[in-house]
Amino acid sequence: MALVPYTSPLDVVFYPICAFLFCVIGFAFFATFIVSEMTTVKAQKNIFRELTLALIASMSLGLGLFFVLLAGGIYV
Question: Cβ contacts of residue 16 below 8 Å, gap of 6+?
Fold first, then answer.
């Protein structure tokens, strides 16, 4: 049985594009989270909204960092 080399499901050309998009999306949600924390009074805060914004921001920034590393040639 011959070994078949692994090929990525996403072409290497798209790594920087994905890195840029995920980082922009992550920073947008992060900025929205920070602004909502600074401007909302304590009586009107919604924990579900805060956790949703934080989760989306952290996931997007994590994927953005992953693709930044891949685009830089650091294969993790």
Answer: 67, 71
